[in-house]
């Protein structure tokens, strides 16, 4: 049987680094909530059976989204950590009869600049019979510095440089990250049992001995993290909307 395609979007972020009382996935950019921009992209790809959004138990904003009433969008209660929300999404898929070998795309709720072309590139990657899973990313372009945690910085500095890191072979991992349902579910359970706090799904899979593939994405597919990110995200989305 041909594996089906699903998406899980952990949307439990509180936006602590963003400095806003409103979770950043609900901030308005280019006339639409960040999470609605994300759902736009997935709903424009007919391959997805359902898009499962894991929200906090006290969430009251999700149902106000434009796409909340779409038949292919399902909201469930997530967990305290990102991995918990992803696990909750996977459990829901299993409860709906999803197969062990079905593919699950996991995407950050605060990455509104994802494109259909990037999803298509991942879909093409997992068509290979030997693909263990794939992660969207881009090669590191800037010079990388590791900070000196013991540095006593003078006034006006945030921290001090400890060393320059060789960026050869380094990539910025993005989302979506796509893996077989059962393999990802077990990897997350094993990581949790080992006391590991994973920051993305690839890390859990790596700890299980899997070597995920990297698929080149676009540098614009960045996460909304700081308030200053809004300006350039507005510019990118406005440009795209103006050139459709």
Walkthrough of the structure:
This protein has a single domain (5-139, 171-242), classed as Spore Coat Polysaccharide Biosynthesis Protein SpsA, Chain A (Alpha-Beta Complex). The longest helix is centred in the middle third of the chain and has 14 residues, at 82-95. Helix content is 28%, strand content 23%. The chain is α/β, with parallel strands linked by helices. Strand 2 and strand 3 form a beta hairpin. The chain has six helices and eleven strands. Helix 2 (82-95) crosses helix 4 (181-193) and helix 4 crosses helix 5 (201-207). Strands 5-4-1-6-10-7-11 form a seven-stranded mixed beta sheet, with helices on both faces. A two-stranded antiparallel sheet has the order 2-3. The mean pLDDT is 93.
What is this structure, in a nutshell?
The chain has 244 residues and is an alpha/beta fold. The chain has six helices and eleven strands.
Q: What characteristics describe this protein?
A:
244 residues, alpha/beta, Spore Coat Polysaccharide Biosynthesis Protein SpsA, Chain A, two-stranded antiparallel ribbon, 11 strands, 28% helix
List the helices and strands and how they pair.
Elements: E1 5-10, E2 28-29, E3 32-33, H1 34-43, E4 48-55, E5 73-77, H2 82-95, E6 103-106, H3 116-125, E7 134-139, E8 144-147, E9 161-165, E10 171-180, H4 181-193, H5 201-207, E11 213-216, H6 229-242
Parallel strand pairs: 1-4, 1-6, 4-5, 7-11
Antiparallel strand pairs: 2-3, 6-10, 7-10, 8-9
